[in-house]
Design brief:
Helix content is 20%, strand content 25%. The protein is an alpha+beta fold. The termini are far apart.
Length: 325
């Protein structure tokens, strides 16, 4: 199917889906479409329930007939855009940037522009060719709402070198995270192959078959009882790795609305309830930050280490947790 074509879907609402929002139902039934795209299509009257146009918040019922015709995709391209960047280091071969929250790394369905790549194309004279015109210079990625350091290749040699360092686990990546609950051990190694969730295709999961090896090391820096401030080291770099491993252990990253459960504040001891509620209100995103990046320079082979301070939102949450009760 070409990018200009788009399929049509017909569904009958089953008992398990009774009372579900229309947009949530369609996301679950169309795993290849992003939530953003589904919502936009529903708002454009591309979804009908029992022959009538309905909006995304409409509650479906058992037996309803749902017809969904997404708008055709427009071909994506990466164009330069004058978007401010926090550049930590730049030379002839590499650039290290401190990515803010709410920024997607490269153009994709639902995010055609306003990405890190669009900004890089404006600020850099050249970027390495990766074979993907939407990802020039991109060696590794951070989730949209994860902040912190990313290395960008400006030359093809730098692309090869940095990619090799990732493959051989020579590139060091240290994160800081605020997680729910109290870890049994103050430090440990988390493992478990990560792959696409078997039923919720917009999520990743620890899987028994078809996943890729993933290893995460954590160390508790501060214990607040109902929450922990952790340092995290990645040995591998799978999609959503820290978020998935933490959630699998029952300690999701605070503010992670995909893998977490911020209703946990209701179960916190009454003496800590006010702090927990304040923490949840302050976490407008997952509280995960790529603090440190260690790599070997592609040309000189010298080891380089870069640091990015905690963003203001994480600092404010931690300050509130540190206050005396």
């Amino acid at each position: 199917m070409s990018e200009s074509e788009s399929p049509s879907f017909q569904f009958t609402v089953e008992p398990d889906d009774d009372g579900m929002r229309l947009d949530t139902f369609l996301v679950s039934r169309c795993p290849d479409l992003s939530r953003t795209r589904v919502q936009a299509d529903v708002e454009a009257d591309r979804a009908r329930v029992n022959g009538r146009d309905r909006q995304k918040g409409f509650r479906i019922q058992v037996g309803d007939k749902v017809d969904f015709s997404p708008l055709p995709l427009q071909p994506l391209e990466a164009l330069p855009q004058d978007i401010p960047l926090d550049i930590i280091h730049q030379d002839e071969s590499i650039l290290v940037v401190n990515k803010p929250a709410d920024m997607v790394v490269h153009p994709a369905t639902g995010h055609p522009d306003g990405t890190l790549v669009n900004a890089l194309l404006y600020h850099c004279k050249k970027l390495a060719r990766t074979g993907d015109v939407l990802r020039p210079g991109i060696v590794h990625r951070l989730d949209k709402d994860t902040t912190g350091l990313m290395a960008v290749a400006l030359t093809d040699n730098a692309q090869r070198s940095l990619s090799d360092q990732l493959q051989t686990r020579d590139m060091g990546r240290t994160y800081r995270a605020v997680s729910w609950g109290s870890w049994v051990q103050d430090e440990d190694v988390l493992s478990g192959d990560i792959g696409r969730h078997p039923t919720q295709r917009h999520k990743m999961a620890v899987v028994d078959q078809g996943g890729r090896t993933a290893t995460t090391r954590y160390r508790v820096l501060e214990d607040f009882g109902f929450a922990q401030y952790c340092e995290v080291e990645l040995e591998t770099g799978r999609t959503h790795q820290i978020r998935v491993h933490f959630a699998k252990k029952g300690h999701p990253v605070v503010g992670d609305f995909l893998y977490g459960d911020d209703k946990r504040a209701k179960g916190v001891h009454p003496l800590d309830r006010k702090k927990a509620d304040r923490m949840v209100r302050g976490a407008k995103r997952q509280l995960l930050h790529a603090l440190r990046l260690r790599l070997r320079h592609p040309e000189s082979d010298l080891e380089m280490t870069f640091d990015a301070p905690l963003p203001l939102d994480m600092e404010q949450v931690l300050s509130g947790l540190r206050e005396e009760t």
